Amino acid sequence: MPQKPAAPLSRSTYPHFLRIPTRWMDNDVYGHVNNVVYYSYFDTVINDWLIHQGGLDIRGGDTIGITPETYCQFRASFSFPDIIEAGLAVGRLGRSSVTYLIGLFKEGEAEAAAVGHFVHVFVDRRTMRPGEAMPPGIRACLEPLVIDWPGSA
Amino acid sequence: MPQKPAAPLSRSTYPHFLRIPTRWMDNDVYGHVNNVVYYSYFDTVINDWLIHQGGLDIRGGDTIGITPETYCQFRASFSFPDIIEAGLAVGRLGRSSVTYLIGLFKEGEAEAAAVGHFVHVFVDRRTMRPGEAMPPGIRACLEPLVIDWPGSA
Amino acid sequence: MPQKPAAPLSRSTYPHFLRIPTRWMDNDVYGHVNNVVYYSYFDTVINDWLIHQGGLDIRGGDTIGITPETYCQFRASFSFPDIIEAGLAVGRLGRSSVTYLIGLFKEGEAEAAAVGHFVHVFVDRRTMRPGEAMPPGIRACLEPLVIDWPGSA
Amino acid sequence: MPQKPAAPLSRSTYPHFLRIPTRWMDNDVYGHVNNVVYYSYFDTVINDWLIHQGGLDIRGGDTIGITPETYCQFRASFSFPDIIEAGLAVGRLGRSSVTYLIGLFKEGEAEAAAVGHFVHVFVDRRTMRPGEAMPPGIRACLEPLVIDWPGSA
Fold first, then answer.
1. Nearest chain C Cα distance for residue A146, angstroms
2. CA–CA separation, D116 vs D38, rounded Å?
3. Chain C to chain D, count of Cβ pairs less than 8 Å apart?
4. β-sheet bridge partners, residue D16
5. Could you say which of A27, A36, A37 has the minimum Cβ distance to residue C29?
6. CA-CA distance, B18 to B44, in Å (whole number)?
7. Own/partner pairs for A4-7, CB < 8 Å, 24+ apart?
């Protein structure tokens, strides 16, 4: 059992939020959102930010984000038709990589029902290798999300 | 190629709308929302209505909706991070069954990008057989959605 | 309620089968495979055939298949960990389009638990318009699947 | 970047394998299986084992498995129509909880393309609290999967 949360539990820590309504098919046979689906909330809040704020062009751009690891701790359950408020922060911003911190909250609740992290390495679409640095637009949209979080060494 | 739309193309025909944001993983390899996912928008707008307006209890209720058929015509594509406005109407309201009409619209557009129908038969959870009639709360929430649509014989 | 099956009910009618194991998350809150997921079985058996037998190159090829309509009738349910045997036939093979017929069978059963159709129009990836004709490799892999089916006018 | 693999990289370490074919919609816009979907392979290999070998009754049983955390490291990509061979082991078997180790392999390859862990706590379906111990049938099916793995403290 995890002793330490993977990302901040407190709503006030997250600089950005996206509302993500659950879908009927998110529910599993036990009547709760399946654990797999939480990760689709993670990459939705992340990519929505990168596209809208960082100019990421997922179809034609030279740079794509690949994912070396993801992690989630589940503390309380969601059920359709809950609306999820997904908090996004950056715990570590490297030269060509970033570690996002994500907290998933029930509408209006102060403490996260799930927390996790998600790593992106930005690579050239053709070579699939990291470039010298991440594109300036991407970096610029991530900097305002950086928070001080000891777990992101 | 379909000659006749499966449900109304015009936004003004639908009595109810639900906003459904796309998710990153809805996109397929061609950069558009995969055709399968449209049906998850269908059952989300339908079940959201039944739960919120009709008192459907998906975990403990005596009545569940089973689905004998669904159908969708795809006219224009969506891509993440589009927000979909899902229009819902009822084309045929029977004793224990209902035929929903669904139109999926890009934000603010007048003509549907996809239209389809979805049939529910309400059955007893234990016997899996239709009862004498659908529960009064369900029927009451469906009646305001009924429109005149010739294809729903 | 459908009077006429959307595709053949009998296993012996289908020229090709693909085994598709269900997944844990295919199940919905009622303990059965969600209706949406049936369509993912449809496009899996179809695209698997096109890639393996027809040389479809989904990442770099000039031609892609777009989907103007899909339809499914649900006759009996599946539950994880069922293994589905997906039967594939072609009901109509046009100049640039094809109507597939699909039957989903429980392992070893003679009659389909679900039947449906799925239409592909092959278009140029850049213009998104149908070419003069579908690529010869695609056509060649579809011809052996053609069956006589009155519903596919 | 992870220094240490989350689970064994070597195929020969895993006591059990399940073949899981990819599906068309598993692919994302970059032409690879989306990172989210890997977790559905995890819970498929796990629950398939629990149902077939441990007698887990997901619809009517008194005991259900809840998931406090999952983790995955992505080392190489899959693409539809790849077939995945999912290796399953147990790194830690507690009184009412288990930590699974999972390795996802391309057909016939010796080294895993992805590795991760997945924790189950077995709880009473009504109280949602862990019982005195996990059901004997569950424990009996997990014991043969236990391996020595230093990361599973």
1. 34
2. 10
3. 62
4. D88
5. A27
6. 9
7. A4/A151, A5/A73, A5/A112, A5/A115, A5/A151, A6/A71, A6/A72, A6/A73, A6/A101, A6/A115, A6/A116, A6/A117, A6/A151, A7/A89, A7/A91, A7/A101, A7/A102, A7/A103, A7/A112, A7/A115, A7/A116, A7/A117, A7/A149, A7/A151
In the structure encoding, which two tokens stand for residue A152, read together? 């992101």
Residues of C in contact with B42 (CB under 8 A): 36
- Grouping H, G, I as helix, E, B as strand and the rest as coil, residue C133 is coil
Q: Is the dihedral of CA B47, B52, B58, B61 positive or negative?
A: negative
Question: At C149, which amino acid appears?
Answer: W
Calpha distance C104→C17 (Å, rounded): 9
The torsion region of residue C128 among left (phi > 0), alpha (psi -120 to 50) and beta comes to left
Q: Write the residue in A20, A46, A81 that is nearest to B48 by C-beta.
A: A81
* pTM listed for this prediction: 0.95
Mapping DSSP to helix (H, G, I), strand (E, B) and coil, where does residue C26 land? helix
Q: Please provide residue B52's backbone torsions phi and psi, each rounded to the nearest 5 degrees.
A: -75, -35
Chain C residue nearest residue D32, CA to CA: C59
DSSP classification of residue D143:
G
User: Which of B36, B50, B120 to mutate to probe the C interface, most C CBs <10 Å?
Assistant: B36
- List the CATH code of the domain at C11-145: 3.10.129.10
- Reading the block at residue A76, the tokens are 């309380």
For residue D69, what pLDDT band results from cuts at 50, 70 and 90?
very high
Q: Is the dihedral of CA D56, D59, D60, D66 positive or negative?
A: positive
Indicate the domain borders of chain C: 11-145
| Among the partner residues D21, D40, D81, nearest to C25 by beta-carbon distance | D40
Strands B83-93 and A114-124: unpaired
Cα separation, B113 vs B9, whole angstroms: 8
Q: What is the ipTM of this complex?
A: 0.94
Whether C81 sits inside 8 A of D24 (CB atoms) is no
Q: Which residues of C touch A37 (CB under 8 A)?
A: 25
C25–A36 CB contact, under 8 Å: yes
H-helix or E-strand containing D73? strand D69-74
Tokens of B97: 């069954």
CA distance A29 to chain C (A): 4
pLDDT tens-digit map of B71-127: 999 999 999 999 999 999 999 999 999 999 999 999 999 999 999 999 999 998 888
Contact between C101 and C8 (Cβ < 8 Å)? yes
